[in-house]
Write a structure and sequence with these properties.
The protein is an alpha/beta fold and about 375 residues long. The chain has helices at about 5-35, 40-50, 60-80, 85-110, 125-145, 155-180, 195-200, 275-280, 300-310, 325-335, 345-350, 380; strands spanning about 210-220, 225-230, 240-250, 285-290, 315-320, 340, 355-360, 365-370. The radius of gyration is 28 Å and the shape is flat.
Length: about 375
């Protein structure tokens, strides 16, 4: 054993306590931010599964998301209060090694573009998350080595109660977010957002700077050279060079990327009516039915909402990534005379974190959002109350 002078031991204890608090707080924040929107993490997991050609795991992504968020929060709390420190630090070390692999993969390959480590409410770049994971890896390794010096803050029964309480709170809190909608909507389709503004580049943003590069072959030597429009070879002529190709090269990355890039609402004839619809004046409703397969437990409530909307002269449009199927059901079978629009399924998942739900629009502004169990709450808005 290496002897440390008393003053050095004091410094080490202070460092361990700092690592303990910093690690615990970071995991609690990370877990809570993602627990606000369990579907968001599940979709990010599906991105990785698709990249790694593991589509069979898509069916389990939501369960993995809920479990991981519970563990992050509970592990952070357990570390802070000193419950089973050696077990917790071992589990955290395994988890941070896995996270470091994921973020390192994203940095090296460029896919996915965001890691989802702090959810959509605290987006950070993969390289930032990778750097954070490396620091956490070091801190957790130190904590594991000195786990016996992590002192409990309360009696054992109290610690066990806190751990169980936090487990239940985060678990059931996520069930509520899944059944209804995230507690805080951090996406560009959130209530109060103007979607037309979200589809345009931010004011004052700078577009990407591109340069056109030409590729020519020198006829005398057969050598291929590349140059831009400002740097033609001094001996250039059609007789001396043979054209091969031209392409655009990014010179400087701008910041003119809009928050919403892929929203497209199309009629059954495949006509994009997005901007026309969002530019309309007045109120209207969008009923979302993602992956519609003919089963409609929501039909009775939809009929009620359809009747009230018709009486109040509030247009009601249905949106689905299976628009033809939904159109046959609503207008062919049920005779409800409801316009149906097609939309990409991925966009629908971002627009509304519910397979079926209702969105109230006032022109281009999102006025309200309700998951299927809460659609009845839209009645006062439809009636103008």
């Amino acid at each position: 054993m290496i002897y440390l002078p008393p003053e050095n031991k004091g410094h080490l204890k202070a460092l361990i306590q700092f690592f303990r608090v910093a690690t615990g707080v970071l995991f609690i924040i990370s877990g809570l931010v993602k627990a606000n929107d369990p579907w968001g993490l599940a979709y990010k997991m599906n991105d990785y599964f698709s990249i790694w050609h593991l589509p069979a795991l898509h069916d389990y992504s939501l369960y993995l998301s809920v479990g991981m968020n519970v563990f992050e929060v509970v592990a952070g709390v357990a570390l802070l209060i000193g419950w089973a420190p050696r077990l917790i630090t071992r589990l955290l070390l395994l988890l941070i090694i896995f996270f470091t692999f994921l973020t390192g993969y994203a940095v090296i390959t460029g896919t996915p573009k965001t890691c989802g480590c702090f959810g959509d409410c605290l987006p950070i770049a993969p390289w930032q998350s990778f750097s954070k994971d490396l620091v956490l890896l070091l801190m957790i390794a130190v904590l594991l080595k000195h786990a016996d010096e992590i002192n409990p803050l309360m009696p054992l029964r109290a610690r066990l109660f806190v751990v169980l309480f936090c487990t239940g709170l985060v678990f059931f809190g996520q069930l509520q977010a899944i059944r209804h909608l995230p507690y805080v909507d951090c996406l560009p389709y959130a209530k109060g957002k103007n979607l037309l503004q979200q589809m345009d580049p931010p004011p004052g943003s700078v577009p990407d700077s591109m340069s056109i590069m030409f590729t020519y072959k020198q006829k005398s030597t057969g050598k291929t050279i590349r140059f831009d429009v400002n740097n033609f070879p001094a001996d250039y002529s059609d007789s001396a060079y043979e054209y091969v190709s031209r392409d655009e090269v990014l010179v400087r990355k701008g910041n003119a990327e809009p928050a919403i890039k892929d929203l497209a609402l199309r009629t059954l004839d495949r006509v994009d009516t997005t901007r026309e619809l969002l530019s309309s004046k007045g109120r209207y409703l969008l009923f979302f039915a993602k992956d519609f397969d003919g089963s409609a437990g929501w039909l009775e409530l939809f009929g009620k909402l359809h009747k009230i909307a018709t009486e109040q002269k509030v247009p009601l449009l249905a949106v689905s990534n299976q628009p033809e199927v939904l159109d046959r059901f609503l207008n062919g079978v049920q005779k409800l005379n409801t316009p149906v629009l097609g939309c990409d399924g991925t966009v629908m998942k971002t627009f509304l974190r519910s397979k079926t739900g209702l969105i109230a629009m006032n022109g281009a502004v999102v006025a309200g959002k309700w998951a299927e169990p809460d659609m009845n709450n839209a009645v006062p808005w439809i009636q103008g109350r």
